[in-house]
Amino acid sequence: MxxxxxxxxxxxxxxxxxxxxxxxxxxxxxxxxxxxxLHCVLQIVMGWEDYHLYEFRFGKRKYREPHPExxxxxxNAARTRVGKSLSGVGAEFQYxxxxxDGWNHDLLLEAIVLPTADLSYPRCISxxxxxxxxxxxxxxxxxxxxAALADPSHKEHEEKLxxxxxxxxxxxxxxxxxxxxxxxxxxxxxKPVLPGKTANHGSSPEAEQLLQARTLPAxxxxxxxxxxxxxxxxxxLNERERELILSHTFADESLTNRxxxxxxxxERPIFGFTLDDLDELAGFIAAEANHAKNKVLQKQLEELFxxxxxxxxxxxxxxD
Length: 320
Fold this sequence. Notes:
By secondary structure, this protein is α+β, with helices and mostly antiparallel strands. 32% of the residues lie in helices and 19% in strands. The strands form three sheets. The protein has an eight-stranded mixed sheet with strand order 5-4-3-6-7-1-2-8. A two-stranded parallel sheet has the order 9-12. The protein is elongated.
């Protein structure tokens, strides 16, 4: 995917609070990424498993996925851009994950930089040490966990070892993290993989590469309507479908700005997309569908992808 002109990257230093020696990452995300998308990045780079609630805190302002009925004072992370939340280089804010364990992350905007043409983003550029295991009990529980693992005579040694197996707190692979980021966010143009029809997440790299190949339809393609590359085609999206794209994909602002309009309940506003833009949007949705852990969410994304694919199959902007 070609890097878009005049689009900057925000370089953030992420440090897990109350852990010594420190667990930290340095990441680069697009300036127009939403806080909901930044949450997905942080889950991967810190090694979390996205099982619990989260929240961003900018002073007294709090952002997450609010419940529409009883959390009206909570701002929506899916509707808030990183670049519009920070005053400039040196700005600081917090990311809290798992309100029970209470993992607090301090984030610092270190720099605003331009992207490198041949690299994919978001990206981790440095870091140290493994993130703690999920549900270990917060910083105090993590300290006890490490002490038990390190001492075979500790009364909880066998229990902790059996819980997660061997654990190296110093281990960190930037290559593995960036591969996970690329798998999740890079808009690979591919058909979502339906559960039960392919290998699972433990498949080989060769199998994963095969999954990234676009699946050709098994039926003859009808004659397409020929349009200009600058012409737009209509796509109907209801409020839930727009929220799926805004909250659960890494589609950039050039694609999602048009969604930030109000509509009546159960109404399907019609949006215009060029075929290139629609193809790119479908790629973002497909990438998320292929990595969604929640089966309901996966099905919703697959259905949305299939509907966009049907629109794409009606048109062509290719010349004879």
